[in-house]
Fold this sequence. Notes:
Number of domains: 1
Amino acid sequence: PKTSVVFLKVHKSASSTVMNILFRFGEMHNLTFAFPVNGGSQLFYPRHFMAKFVQGFSPGSAPQFNILCHHMRFLQPEVQKVVPSTAVYFSILRNPVQLMESSFTYYKGTSAFSHARSLEEFLRQPYHFYNPKAADSHYAKNLMTFDFGFNPDGDVTPKRVHLMLKAIEASFDLLLISEYFDESMVLLKEILCWDLDSVVSFPLNIRDSSTRSPLSESMVEKIKTWNRLDWEIYTHFNKTFWERIDRDIGRERMQREVRALQQRQEELAEICLQGRGSVVPKEIKDSSLMPLQHGNARILGYNIKQGLDKQTEHMCRRLVTPELQYSSTLYKKQFPQKLQ
């Protein structure tokens, strides 16, 4: 199994679920994580990543961290100072239309969104609300482009798009697609030589459907136009994703693998979860498993069955522990001396 991994955690793209997979694998194999200095949840995002943002990084020494997966704005030369040259680089993308709808709800408090009564109103005259110079403007336009380290306000010329896609291809070994999450996990498992249980997950940081809003055809088109750079990234890598499946796995085997993954997830839901699924925040009984509630979104969580044996309880708890709590637990384990 590959044990050096860089995951660019793109906002609102099922990346918290992927992070849980990396946390569990790293914990099980005693790997080191590149944590933000002082154990925060982001590597000084929205600034471009710098190696010095990592707790315990020392310039001049060989890259000594196995897994880099906290929110960052990608800058490869700096990333390379932190992880071994053998590291596998991957990220996950989401359809920019759904991404924008999700961001509007989740980042409602940001300068671009706070004064718009609805996403529709924002899209009617975005520049009435959006100021590219505002420190938090990136949440409102071409968010994936921004996370990959590029300028979200750049002109959309064929040359610029071409260079951006080439740069992403040169840096990343694999780009997953959140709409095809199970297929993505099978691909990830293949490239990392991991076993099935290592890529099993329950969806984390997802919204209650009551806070999702339907989008009209005209809104969909406006979102694509407004996030044109993101749309170019998404359509290109959605195509290469399926090309890769055809080349490396084949559709039939992929179907079998996806079935096996889903069956294992159902088994684990049966073993671990009360009611076998996610619940709204007010129904979460164990406060240590409460996900961060943000903006106007209601983020769902889980309840673990009572009376499990210790080992099973530990496994189940790990599967449903929200990102911030899990990150904090692993940080304390890796840097016990920081807590004195």
